[in-house]
Amino acid sequence: MLDLEPYSARLGGKTGIYPYKIKVDRYLSDLRGYFLEEQIVEEMLSRNENPLIYTVYEISREFEGEFNVGCTIIYPGKIGDEYYFTKGHYHAKEQTSEVYVGLSGEGIILMQNREGRTFAEEIKPKTVVYIPPGFAHRSINTGKTRLVFLAIYPSNSGHDYETIMRTGFTKIVVERDGKPTLIDNPKYRKKL
Amino acid sequence: MLDLEPYSARLGGKTGIYPYKIKVDRYLSDLRGYFLEEQIVEEMLSRNENPLIYTVYEISREFEGEFNVGCTIIYPGKIGDEYYFTKGHYHAKEQTSEVYVGLSGEGIILMQNREGRTFAEEIKPKTVVYIPPGFAHRSINTGKTRLVFLAIYPSNSGHDYETIMRTGFTKIVVERDGKPTLIDNPKYRKKL
């Protein structure tokens, strides 16, 4: 029961949350195969261009019934017309949900369940987005500044990245006439 | 599966969160027996003075593994030297936790477990407070404006108000020399 203590943390600043326990950086090379225009990604990597796409700072916990609190920072940028995003995942434990609280910047939370039902919600300061059980979720930075949001989810929810890596999301978010636009993902594959 | 859909909600404004599903008002008469100076409460009520102490606006959900998202607004005020507070409760389901996100105003989150281990954390804008499993929690408005914060917790966590009603918290928060001060609660009773 050593760690079963309350804590408080500050929001804002460089890391979005402080103090934190874990920092995870995701570079373009970690998202190989995720973007529509794979050839652009491969060309960049072959030139040793490997931009940082997003960082997660997290306060993880370990006991039954606990919550993790994480802060995700997605940097502004695009691969071709497609905005930078997080890999996206289902929770390994199906009956778990997640709550996002926007802190700065602007973006879209893309959600879909295993039947392909898809939802998109805007994330920005003073906005809460609720991800119910069974919905994969990806965050997309559609703005010109860092997108920063808080995520609260059960410590034991786990991550299934593999399904999304194989199927993609039904939709992607691209810039059209200077504006973020949701379009069908030509590479989406129904789960085999 | 009718209700198992994502949503987004706006933070701020009069209700703290919008849209919401449920509104609960707690007046002084609902907190009879909770404050240290019971005679002041009884005198006020006998004069038909029954101020609104706090309001909760909530988006409740109903399926396995879902989260409720609530916004609590505690109005500024005192009974004697003791600042307005929420009743405080344990979760009926022990292995559940809760996360608070401060939105406006300032206050204290008082937490204690069934062995009487007590913690106090400040709540204010850009602050997260984590309430681990097994900890009763009460929120106290120590400022001159509304204290507004977001609460995220499992939909099936339930409320045990009865234990705190019987024992009280180990500590209370009172004004001393114009400042909020944590003191031992003379009326605290170890659980019988």
Structural notes for this entry:
Two copies of one chain form a homodimer. Helix content of chain A is 8%, strand content 44%. In chain A, a hairpin with a 7-residue loop joins β4 and β5. Chain A has a single domain, classed as Jelly Rolls, CATH 2.60.120. A six-stranded antiparallel sheet of chain A has the order 3-4-5-13-8-11, with no helix packed on it. Chain A has a three-stranded antiparallel sheet with strand order 10-9-12, with no helix packed on it. In chain A, strands 1-2 form a two-stranded antiparallel sheet. The first copy, chain A, is built from two helices and 15 strands. Chain A is mainly beta. The mean pLDDT of chain A is 96. Chains A and B meet through β1, β8, β10, β11 and β13 of A and β1, β8, β10, β11 and β13 of B.
Q: How would a textbook summarize the main sheet of chain A?
A: 6 strands, antiparallel
Q: Describe the global form of chain A.
A: globular
And the CATH topology of chain A?
Answer: Jelly Rolls
First CA to last CA of chain A: what distance? 43 Å
Summed over residues and divided by their number, the pLDDT of chain A gives a mean of: 96
Core attributes:
three-stranded antiparallel β-sheet; Jelly Rolls; homodimer
Please describe the topology of this protein.
2 copies of one chain form a homodimer.
Chain A: E1 7-11, E2 17-18, E3 22-27, H1 38-46, E4 52-59, E5 67-74, E6 78-79, E7 82-83, E8 98-104, E9 107-113, E10 118-123, E11 127-131, E12 135-141, E13 147-154, H2 162-167, E14 171-176, E15 179-184
Antiparallel strand pairs in A: 1-2, 3-4, 4-5, 5-13, 6-7, 8-11, 8-13, 9-10, 9-12, 14-15
